[in-house]
Amino acid sequence: MDVRAILLTGVAAPNSDAAISVNDSPELFAGLPLALLPVLGRPLIHQIADRLKQAGVDAISVVNAADPALPLIEDAHRPDLKWKDVSSEQVWRAAEEEFDEVVQAGAELVIVMRLGPYAEIEIDPLLQFHLDERNHATQVIADDGPIDVFVLSGSRRNDAAFLLRNKLTRLRRPAAPFLLNGYVNRLCTAADFRRLVLDSFSLKTCIRPLGEEIRPGIWMGEGAKIDRSVRLVAPCFIGSHARVRSGSLITRGSSIEHHSIVDCGTVVEASNLLPLSYIGAGLDLMHSVVGLKRIVSVKYAAQLEIEDSSLVSAVPSTSALRTLSHAANLITFVPRQMIRNLIGGRKLRKSQADAECPPPSFDPGVVTRPAVQDRQSLTSSVVAGMREYGNQ
Protein backbone atom coordinates (compact mmCIF):
# COMPACT_ATOMS: atom_id res chain seq x y z
CA MET A 1 0.00 0.00 0.00
CA ASP A 2 1.31 3.44 -0.98
CA VAL A 3 1.33 5.69 2.11
CA ARG A 4 2.58 9.28 2.07
CA ALA A 5 2.72 12.10 4.60
CA ILE A 6 2.26 15.86 4.60
CA LEU A 7 3.81 17.80 7.48
CA LEU A 8 2.58 21.33 8.19
CA THR A 9 5.04 23.61 10.02
CA GLY A 10 4.74 27.20 11.19
CA VAL A 11 0.95 26.85 11.32
CA ALA A 12 -0.85 28.25 14.35
CA ALA A 13 -2.91 25.81 16.39
CA PRO A 14 -6.58 25.49 15.35
CA ASN A 15 -8.85 28.10 16.96
CA SER A 16 -5.78 30.22 17.70
CA ASP A 17 -5.39 33.78 16.46
CA ALA A 18 -1.65 33.79 17.15
CA ALA A 19 0.41 35.16 14.28
CA ILE A 20 3.58 33.37 13.33
CA SER A 21 5.57 36.59 13.57
CA VAL A 22 4.77 37.15 17.26
CA ASN A 23 7.75 36.07 19.33
CA ASP A 24 5.83 35.00 22.42
CA SER A 25 3.11 33.07 20.59
CA PRO A 26 2.51 29.45 21.59
CA GLU A 27 4.71 26.82 19.91
CA LEU A 28 7.31 29.45 18.92
CA PHE A 29 10.76 30.54 20.05
CA ALA A 30 11.65 33.99 18.69
CA GLY A 31 9.23 33.40 15.83
CA LEU A 32 10.71 29.99 15.01
CA PRO A 33 8.47 26.90 15.39
CA LEU A 34 9.64 24.69 18.25
CA ALA A 35 9.17 21.66 15.99
CA LEU A 36 12.05 22.89 13.82
CA LEU A 37 14.50 23.29 16.72
CA PRO A 38 17.07 20.57 17.38
CA VAL A 39 16.67 18.18 20.28
CA LEU A 40 19.91 16.47 21.33
CA GLY A 41 21.60 17.10 18.00
CA ARG A 42 18.84 16.71 15.41
CA PRO A 43 15.91 18.92 14.35
CA LEU A 44 12.70 17.57 15.80
CA ILE A 45 11.13 17.41 12.35
CA HIS A 46 13.86 14.95 11.32
CA GLN A 47 13.01 12.74 14.28
CA ILE A 48 9.39 12.68 13.14
CA ALA A 49 10.27 12.08 9.49
CA ASP A 50 12.55 9.18 10.37
CA ARG A 51 9.83 7.50 12.43
CA LEU A 52 7.46 7.81 9.48
CA LYS A 53 10.00 6.33 7.08
CA GLN A 54 10.77 3.45 9.44
CA ALA A 55 7.03 2.69 9.46
CA GLY A 56 7.02 2.39 5.67
CA VAL A 57 5.81 5.84 4.58
CA ASP A 58 6.96 6.19 0.98
CA ALA A 59 7.39 9.97 0.70
CA ILE A 60 7.14 13.01 2.97
CA SER A 61 6.20 16.56 1.97
CA VAL A 62 6.71 19.61 4.18
CA VAL A 63 4.50 22.68 3.77
CA ASN A 64 6.17 25.44 5.78
CA ALA A 65 4.36 28.67 6.68
CA ALA A 66 7.17 30.07 8.85
CA ASP A 67 9.44 32.74 7.43
CA PRO A 68 12.13 30.84 5.47
CA ALA A 69 14.63 33.60 6.28
CA LEU A 70 14.51 32.79 10.00
CA PRO A 71 17.69 31.30 11.51
CA LEU A 72 17.88 27.49 11.73
CA ILE A 73 15.13 26.97 9.11
CA GLU A 74 17.75 25.79 6.63
CA ASP A 75 18.98 23.18 9.13
CA ALA A 76 15.56 21.53 8.93
CA HIS A 77 15.81 20.99 5.16
CA ARG A 78 16.81 17.54 3.98
CA PRO A 79 17.08 16.01 0.47
CA ASP A 80 14.49 13.30 1.17
CA LEU A 81 11.89 15.85 2.33
CA LYS A 82 9.95 17.67 -0.35
CA TRP A 83 9.98 21.18 1.10
CA LYS A 84 7.61 23.97 0.09
CA ASP A 85 7.65 27.46 1.66
CA VAL A 86 4.33 29.31 1.53
CA SER A 87 2.73 32.29 3.24
CA SER A 88 0.54 31.76 6.28
CA GLU A 89 -2.46 32.94 4.25
CA GLN A 90 -1.87 30.29 1.57
CA VAL A 91 -0.81 27.35 3.72
CA TRP A 92 -4.17 25.52 3.68
CA ARG A 93 -4.59 25.95 -0.06
CA ALA A 94 -1.01 24.69 -0.53
CA ALA A 95 -1.73 21.69 1.70
CA GLU A 96 -4.82 20.85 -0.35
CA GLU A 97 -2.83 21.09 -3.57
CA GLU A 98 -0.11 18.89 -2.10
CA PHE A 99 -2.73 16.30 -1.14
CA ASP A 100 -3.96 16.24 -4.75
CA GLU A 101 -0.39 15.83 -6.03
CA VAL A 102 0.50 12.88 -3.78
CA VAL A 103 -2.80 11.14 -4.62
CA GLN A 104 -2.15 11.59 -8.33
CA ALA A 105 1.31 10.11 -7.72
CA GLY A 106 -0.33 6.94 -6.37
CA ALA A 107 -0.92 7.52 -2.65
CA GLU A 108 -3.72 5.37 -1.24
CA LEU A 109 -3.46 6.77 2.30
CA VAL A 110 -2.15 10.19 3.29
CA ILE A 111 -1.04 11.13 6.81
CA VAL A 112 -1.47 14.85 7.55
CA MET A 113 0.37 16.23 10.60
CA ARG A 114 0.45 19.76 11.95
CA LEU A 115 3.79 19.97 13.72
CA GLY A 116 2.86 21.71 16.91
CA PRO A 117 2.64 18.92 19.49
CA TYR A 118 5.22 16.15 19.43
CA ALA A 119 3.60 12.70 19.55
CA GLU A 120 5.14 9.26 19.11
CA ILE A 121 2.50 7.37 17.16
CA GLU A 122 2.62 3.73 16.12
CA ILE A 123 1.88 4.16 12.44
CA ASP A 124 0.97 0.56 11.54
CA PRO A 125 -1.81 0.25 14.16
CA LEU A 126 -3.10 3.69 13.13
CA LEU A 127 -3.37 2.73 9.46
CA GLN A 128 -4.93 -0.62 10.30
CA PHE A 129 -7.49 1.08 12.52
CA HIS A 130 -8.36 3.49 9.70
CA LEU A 131 -8.94 0.58 7.31
CA ASP A 132 -10.83 -1.59 9.80
CA GLU A 133 -13.21 1.24 10.72
CA ARG A 134 -13.65 2.13 7.04
CA ASN A 135 -13.16 5.77 7.89
CA HIS A 136 -12.75 8.43 5.25
CA ALA A 137 -10.68 10.44 7.73
CA THR A 138 -9.31 9.34 11.11
CA GLN A 139 -8.06 11.72 13.80
CA VAL A 140 -5.58 10.79 16.55
CA ILE A 141 -6.66 11.58 20.11
CA ALA A 142 -4.49 11.51 23.23
CA ASP A 143 -5.61 11.31 26.86
CA ASP A 144 -5.55 15.11 27.16
CA GLY A 145 -7.36 15.84 23.91
CA PRO A 146 -7.11 15.65 20.11
CA ILE A 147 -3.85 15.92 18.20
CA ASP A 148 -3.59 17.46 14.75
CA VAL A 149 -2.72 14.15 13.11
CA PHE A 150 -5.07 12.62 10.54
CA VAL A 151 -5.15 9.68 8.15
CA LEU A 152 -7.02 10.45 4.92
CA SER A 153 -8.09 8.01 2.23
CA GLY A 154 -6.67 9.03 -1.11
CA SER A 155 -9.95 8.25 -2.86
CA ARG A 156 -11.89 10.64 -0.61
CA ARG A 157 -10.73 13.98 -1.94
CA ASN A 158 -13.86 15.83 -0.77
CA ASP A 159 -13.27 14.74 2.82
CA ALA A 160 -9.64 15.87 2.64
CA ALA A 161 -10.59 19.22 1.09
CA PHE A 162 -13.25 19.81 3.76
CA LEU A 163 -10.80 19.04 6.58
CA LEU A 164 -8.04 21.28 5.20
CA ARG A 165 -10.35 24.16 4.36
CA ASN A 166 -11.58 24.04 7.95
CA LYS A 167 -7.98 24.11 9.21
CA LEU A 168 -8.15 20.62 10.74
CA THR A 169 -11.01 21.57 13.05
CA ARG A 170 -13.90 19.61 11.48
CA LEU A 171 -14.49 16.32 9.69
CA ARG A 172 -16.93 16.09 6.82
CA ARG A 173 -18.61 13.15 8.50
CA PRO A 174 -18.21 11.65 11.99
CA ALA A 175 -15.59 8.93 12.34
CA ALA A 176 -14.17 6.83 15.15
CA PRO A 177 -10.94 8.41 16.48
CA PHE A 178 -7.69 6.55 17.12
CA LEU A 179 -6.66 6.63 20.79
CA LEU A 180 -2.93 7.23 21.25
CA ASN A 181 -1.14 5.50 24.13
CA GLY A 182 2.37 6.74 23.35
CA TYR A 183 4.38 9.78 24.42
CA VAL A 184 2.83 13.22 23.84
CA ASN A 185 4.28 16.67 24.47
CA ARG A 186 2.15 19.67 23.45
CA LEU A 187 5.26 21.84 22.86
CA CYS A 188 3.44 25.08 23.58
CA THR A 189 6.21 26.76 25.58
CA ALA A 190 9.93 26.70 26.21
CA ALA A 191 9.15 24.76 29.39
CA ASP A 192 7.57 22.03 27.25
CA PHE A 193 10.65 22.05 25.04
CA ARG A 194 12.89 21.64 28.08
CA ARG A 195 10.69 18.79 29.32
CA LEU A 196 11.09 17.03 25.99
CA VAL A 197 14.88 17.16 26.39
CA LEU A 198 14.70 15.85 29.96
CA ASP A 199 12.26 13.10 28.97
CA SER A 200 14.64 12.05 26.18
CA PHE A 201 17.54 11.85 28.63
CA SER A 202 15.29 9.75 30.87
CA LEU A 203 14.46 7.36 27.98
CA LYS A 204 10.77 8.31 28.06
CA THR A 205 10.87 9.14 24.32
CA CYS A 206 12.41 7.54 21.26
CA ILE A 207 14.82 10.49 20.83
CA ARG A 208 18.45 9.61 21.44
CA PRO A 209 21.46 11.98 21.52
CA LEU A 210 23.37 12.27 18.24
CA GLY A 211 26.92 11.57 19.32
CA GLU A 212 29.22 9.26 21.22
CA GLU A 213 28.53 8.41 24.84
CA ILE A 214 31.97 9.22 26.22
CA ARG A 215 30.90 8.52 29.81
CA PRO A 216 27.67 7.16 31.28
CA GLY A 217 24.99 9.74 30.53
CA ILE A 218 27.36 12.14 28.73
CA TRP A 219 27.24 12.46 24.94
CA MET A 220 29.56 14.40 22.66
CA GLY A 221 29.00 15.14 18.97
CA GLU A 222 31.57 14.97 16.20
CA GLY A 223 34.17 17.72 16.31
CA ALA A 224 33.14 19.08 19.72
CA LYS A 225 35.98 20.69 21.70
CA ILE A 226 35.89 20.54 25.48
CA ASP A 227 38.69 21.94 27.63
CA ARG A 228 40.28 19.45 30.02
CA SER A 229 39.27 21.56 33.02
CA VAL A 230 35.57 21.44 32.13
CA ARG A 231 33.28 19.42 34.40
CA LEU A 232 30.47 17.46 32.76
CA VAL A 233 27.78 16.03 35.02
CA ALA A 234 25.37 13.44 33.64
CA PRO A 235 23.05 13.66 31.90
CA CYS A 236 24.26 16.22 29.37
CA PHE A 237 24.89 16.59 25.65
CA ILE A 238 27.57 18.55 23.77
CA GLY A 239 26.70 18.89 20.08
CA SER A 240 28.92 18.68 17.02
CA HIS A 241 31.61 21.37 16.72
CA ALA A 242 30.48 23.03 19.96
CA ARG A 243 33.13 24.58 22.22
CA VAL A 244 33.15 24.51 26.01
CA ARG A 245 36.03 26.58 27.35
CA SER A 246 38.10 26.22 30.50
CA GLY A 247 36.60 26.17 33.97
CA SER A 248 33.02 25.69 32.77
CA LEU A 249 30.45 23.34 34.26
CA ILE A 250 27.74 21.62 32.19
CA THR A 251 25.26 19.77 34.34
CA ARG A 252 21.77 18.43 35.04
CA GLY A 253 20.09 17.75 31.74
CA SER A 254 21.81 20.49 29.76
CA SER A 255 22.08 20.37 25.98
CA ILE A 256 24.66 22.40 24.04
CA GLU A 257 23.72 22.23 20.37
CA HIS A 258 26.03 22.34 17.36
CA HIS A 259 28.54 25.17 16.83
CA SER A 260 27.62 26.81 20.14
CA ILE A 261 30.18 28.29 22.53
CA VAL A 262 30.24 28.29 26.34
CA ASP A 263 32.91 30.72 27.48
CA CYS A 264 35.32 30.35 30.37
CA GLY A 265 34.04 29.66 33.87
CA THR A 266 30.34 29.57 32.98
CA VAL A 267 27.86 27.21 34.62
CA VAL A 268 25.07 25.79 32.45
CA GLU A 269 22.52 24.02 34.61
CA ALA A 270 19.38 22.32 33.23
CA SER A 271 19.38 24.55 30.16
CA ASN A 272 19.46 24.43 26.37
CA LEU A 273 21.90 26.39 24.24
CA LEU A 274 20.49 26.43 20.71
CA PRO A 275 22.76 26.08 17.64
CA LEU A 276 25.15 28.91 16.77
CA SER A 277 24.75 30.56 20.17
CA TYR A 278 27.39 32.11 22.44
CA ILE A 279 27.13 32.57 26.18
CA GLY A 280 29.76 34.72 27.86
CA ALA A 281 32.37 34.08 30.51
CA GLY A 282 31.66 33.73 34.22
CA LEU A 283 27.89 33.43 33.89
CA ASP A 284 25.39 31.21 35.64
CA LEU A 285 22.64 29.95 33.31
CA MET A 286 19.86 28.02 35.02
CA HIS A 287 16.64 26.41 33.76
CA SER A 288 16.57 28.38 30.54
CA VAL A 289 16.63 28.14 26.76
CA VAL A 290 19.18 30.40 25.05
CA GLY A 291 19.45 31.23 21.37
CA LEU A 292 18.83 33.86 18.72
CA LYS A 293 20.13 36.48 21.19
CA ARG A 294 17.40 35.60 23.69
CA ILE A 295 17.11 33.95 27.06
CA VAL A 296 13.82 32.30 27.95
CA SER A 297 13.57 31.43 31.62
CA VAL A 298 11.58 28.26 32.24
CA LYS A 299 11.37 29.00 35.95
CA TYR A 300 9.97 32.51 35.48
CA ALA A 301 8.04 31.87 32.23
CA ALA A 302 9.55 35.02 30.71
CA GLN A 303 11.99 35.93 27.98
CA LEU A 304 14.63 38.60 27.56
CA GLU A 305 16.22 39.89 24.40
CA ILE A 306 19.90 40.44 25.18
CA GLU A 307 21.69 43.35 23.54
CA ASP A 308 25.00 42.91 25.39
CA SER A 309 27.05 40.55 23.19
CA SER A 310 29.34 39.73 26.12
CA LEU A 311 26.41 37.90 27.71
CA VAL A 312 24.62 36.28 24.79
CA SER A 313 25.21 36.57 21.07
CA ALA A 314 24.97 34.64 17.81
CA VAL A 315 27.85 32.67 16.33
CA PRO A 316 28.41 33.25 12.57
CA SER A 317 26.78 30.54 10.49
CA THR A 318 29.66 30.03 8.04
CA SER A 319 33.04 28.55 8.91
CA ALA A 320 35.01 31.47 7.42
CA LEU A 321 33.16 34.03 9.53
CA ARG A 322 33.55 31.86 12.64
CA THR A 323 37.32 31.70 12.07
CA LEU A 324 37.53 35.47 11.74
CA SER A 325 35.43 35.92 14.87
CA HIS A 326 37.66 33.58 16.90
CA ALA A 327 40.77 35.40 15.64
CA ALA A 328 39.33 38.79 16.56
CA ASN A 329 38.45 37.58 20.06
CA LEU A 330 41.97 36.23 20.54
CA ILE A 331 43.59 39.48 19.41
CA THR A 332 41.45 41.62 21.70
CA PHE A 333 41.56 39.28 24.72
CA VAL A 334 44.66 40.73 26.40
CA PRO A 335 43.64 44.41 25.99
CA ARG A 336 40.17 43.62 27.36
CA GLN A 337 41.63 41.87 30.39
CA MET A 338 43.98 44.81 31.07
CA ILE A 339 41.08 47.26 30.92
CA ARG A 340 38.99 45.12 33.26
CA ASN A 341 41.86 44.97 35.77
CA LEU A 342 42.42 48.73 35.57
CA ILE A 343 38.78 49.54 36.30
CA GLY A 344 38.62 46.99 39.09
CA GLY A 345 36.36 44.47 37.40
CA ARG A 346 35.27 41.43 39.31
CA LYS A 347 37.65 38.51 39.02
CA LEU A 348 36.46 34.98 38.52
CA ARG A 349 37.48 32.38 41.02
CA LYS A 350 39.81 29.76 39.71
CA SER A 351 38.06 26.64 38.47
CA GLN A 352 39.21 23.23 39.62
CA ALA A 353 39.53 20.44 37.13
CA ASP A 354 37.53 17.32 37.88
CA ALA A 355 39.55 14.37 36.63
CA GLU A 356 37.17 11.79 38.02
CA CYS A 357 34.43 10.22 35.93
CA PRO A 358 30.81 10.67 37.06
CA PRO A 359 29.07 7.72 38.71
CA PRO A 360 28.28 4.80 36.37
CA SER A 361 24.57 5.59 36.70
CA PHE A 362 22.47 8.66 37.31
CA ASP A 363 18.98 9.46 38.59
CA PRO A 364 16.96 11.07 35.76
CA GLY A 365 14.65 12.64 38.29
CA VAL A 366 17.40 14.85 39.67
CA VAL A 367 17.49 16.95 36.50
CA THR A 368 14.06 18.37 37.30
CA ARG A 369 15.09 19.66 40.73
CA PRO A 370 16.59 23.17 40.65
CA ALA A 371 19.84 23.60 42.53
CA VAL A 372 19.25 27.27 43.26
CA GLN A 373 16.04 28.49 44.88
CA ASP A 374 14.43 31.80 45.87
CA ARG A 375 15.95 34.06 43.25
CA GLN A 376 14.98 37.71 43.14
CA SER A 377 12.72 39.22 40.49
CA LEU A 378 13.56 38.44 36.86
CA THR A 379 16.36 40.50 35.35
CA SER A 380 19.17 39.71 32.96
CA SER A 381 21.53 39.42 35.92
CA VAL A 382 19.28 36.79 37.46
CA VAL A 383 18.85 34.58 34.40
CA ALA A 384 22.49 34.83 33.39
CA GLY A 385 24.54 36.50 36.11
CA MET A 386 28.00 36.35 37.58
CA ARG A 387 28.44 33.04 39.38
CA GLU A 388 28.37 33.48 43.12
CA TYR A 389 29.67 30.19 44.35
CA GLY A 390 32.73 29.15 42.41
CA ASN A 391 33.00 25.89 40.50
CA GLN A 392 30.26 23.90 42.22
Describe the structure.
With 392 residues, the chain is an alpha/beta fold. It folds into 2 domains: 3-185, Spore Coat Polysaccharide Biosynthesis Protein SpsA, Chain A (Alpha-Beta Complex); 190-386. Helix content is 23%, strand content 27%. The chain has 8 helices and 31 strands. It has an 8-stranded mixed sheet. Strands 7-6-1-8-11-10-12 form a 7-stranded mixed sheet, sandwiched between helices. Strands 16-19-22-25-30 form a 5-stranded mixed sheet, with no helix packed on it. Strand 28 (294-297) and strand 29 (302-305) form a beta hairpin. Helix 3 runs antiparallel to helix 5 (157-165). The longest helix is centred in the C-terminal third of the chain and has 24 residues, at 319-342. It is elongated. Mean pLDDT is 85; it is low at 18-23, 319-327, 345-360, 366-378 and 380-392.
Q: How big is the Rg?
A: 23 Å
- Structural class estimated from helices and strands: alpha/beta
The portion of residues assigned to helices is: 10-25%
Tally of separate domains = 2
Strand content: 25-35%
Overall pLDDT level: 85
The total of helices stands at 8
Distance linking N and C termini: 57 Å
The shape, in one word, is elongated
Show unreliable segments. Answer: 18-23, 319-327, 345-360, 366-378, 380-392
Total strands: 31
Spatial arrangement of strands, main beta sheet: 14-15-18-21-24-27-28-29
Characterize the largest beta sheet: strand count, sense, and whether it forms a barrel: 8 strands, mixed
